[in-house]
Amino acid sequence: MDENKIYELINSNLMFHLATMDGDQPRVRGMMLFRADKDGIVFHTASTKDLFKQIQKNPKAELCFNADGTQIRVTGELQVNTDPALREEIFAHPTRKFLQAWKDMGIDNLMTVLVMKNCEAVIWTMETNFEPKKPIKICNG
């Protein structure tokens, strides 16, 4: 599978699972994707959440996407993105109307934009279940 097909599948389903480490204990939770392309996989969280604290201590993470019978696991390191234009794009996006309440309450500074770059993706399907894993470099932009 090529890099563009991977982005297409990832972007076709905004929900994914994120695994981080909390000391020696893995933590997994559902998240909402903003977008994925050659520049990185973009999503957000609140800076007050345990998730953010875990990422600050250990930025290595794994994301798991499921689309059309294909599982895509992506590993890499998460970085905080402070670009004001990207923040405004997220706040204005139709899938993020729920964030308007944060702006209305004056707590929009709690939103932390996270980007995973220089990633490796591993594709899994029932048909390839027992084949060796073949990591594919993505998000190198």
What does this entry look like structurally?
The protein is an alpha+beta fold. It has one domain (3-138): Pnp Oxidase, Chain A, CATH 2.30.110. Helix content is 23%, strand content 46%. It contains four helices and seven strands, in the order H-E-E-E-H-E-E-H-H-E-E. The protein has helices spanning 3-11, 50-57, 84-92, 100-105, and strands at 15-22, 25-37, 40-46, 60-67, 70-81, 111-124, 136-138. It has a six-stranded antiparallel beta barrel. Strand 4 (60-67) and strand 5 form a beta hairpin. The longest helix has 9 residues, at 3-11. The protein is globular. The two termini are 19 Å apart. The mean pLDDT is 94.
Salient structural properties:
alpha+beta, Pnp Oxidase, Chain A, six-stranded antiparallel β-barrel
Helical residues, percent: 10-25%
- The tally of beta strands, per DSSP, is 7
Query: Whole-Å distance between the termini?
Result: 19 Å
Q: What is the mean pLDDT?
A: 94
**CATH H level, superfamily name:** Electron Transport, Fmn-binding Protein, Chain A
CATH class categorisation: Mainly Beta
Q: How many helical elements?
A: 4
Q: What is the SS-derived class?
A: alpha+beta
**Sheet with the most strands: spatial strand order:** 1-2-3-6-5-4
Strand content: over 45%
What gross morphology would you assign?
A: globular
Low-confidence stretches are: none
Tell me the number of structural domains. Answer: 1
How would you characterize the largest beta sheet?
Answer: 6 strands, antiparallel, barrel
CATH topology: Pnp Oxidase, Chain A
Computed CA radius of gyration, to the nearest angstrom: 15 Å
- The second-level CATH architecture is Roll
SSE series: HEEEHEEHHEE
